[in-house]
Design goal:
Number of domains: 2
Number of strands: 0
Number of helices: 10
Order of helices and strands: HHHHHHHHHH
Structural class: mainly alpha
Helix content: 55-70%
CATH class of the largest domain: Mainly Alpha
Oligomer: single chain
Length: about 230
């Protein structure tokens, strides 16, 4: 007996298989958004950057940007955590675990900084902060805590150990950390501001290596600095 036909209007429609656009994975979308935000901050500064322009550059909706990063502050913080925090964590781990002579450790730190400067891999965040910190102190507070503060903490611990074994004298560990890091920051800012207009960019490595020698002599370093 033939099967009864379904009543008119109740026929099951033939499935239509339409190709669906593949959506990027969340981590890919976030990376695209951060890249777009970095470009926007570089072109227009923090105040001038607009979330809708970040979305346009990332080729996502503005709602998608707000889903992951509800404010420009959140974008800035995510960029710093992506681009700066891993380097700071690596340097901090090395300094906190190091208990040998000062000179090799300090020369390694300035060597890392020099290599980044000469390779042109400096992020724009220090320059951005100088321009925007007055209007957006929360940016400076975040960077001071998460980047500069962590490096100063690790350096202070390094100098504290050197003081306790009488390798250096005449200064507190905290002051030594500030004295040491100042020319490093100067070299970073010099490159960001002046490298593009100098006929011959000022080389950071010999300057920073000389800084280590002068710095150690100023702290009554016992023993010749490592060559």
């Amino acid at each position: 007996m033939p099967a009864a036909k379904p009543a008119i209007g109740l026929e099951q429609p033939t499935p239509q298989f339409q190709p669906r656009a593949r959506r990027a994975a969340p981590e890919v979308r976030q990376a695209d958004i951060l890249d777009a935000a970095l470009a926007e901050f570089s072109e227009h500064g923090f105040e001038g950057a607009r979330m809708e322009d970040v979305a346009r550059k990332a080729r996502v909706s503005k709602g998608t940007v707000y889903l992951y990063y509800p404010t420009k502050q959140a974008l800035f913080e995510a960029l710093v955590r992506r681009d700066i925090a891993p380097r700071v964590a690596l340097a901090s781990l090395f300094l906190k675990g190091y208990d040998g002579p000062l000179a090799p450790a300090l020369e390694r730190i300035v060597g890392m900084a020099s290599a980044a400067i000469q390779a042109g891999k400096l992020p724009i965040y220090p320059k951005l902060l100088i321009a925007e910190a007055g209007r957006f102190p929360e940016l400076a507070a975040f960077y001071r805590r998460e980047v500069v503060g962590r490096m100063l903490e690790a350096l202070t611990a390094l100098f504290d150990r050197a003081l306790k074994r009488d390798e250096i004298s005449g200064v507190t560990a905290e002051t030594a950390a500030h004295l040491f890091i100042a020319p490093v920051l100067k070299s970073v800012l010099w490159s960001l501001v002046f490298a593009g207009v100098e006929d011959t960019p000022f080389p950071p490595e010999p300057y920073l290596q000389s800084h280590v020698q002068v710095f150690l002599r100023g702290l009554n370093h016992k023993g010749e600095p490592h060559a």
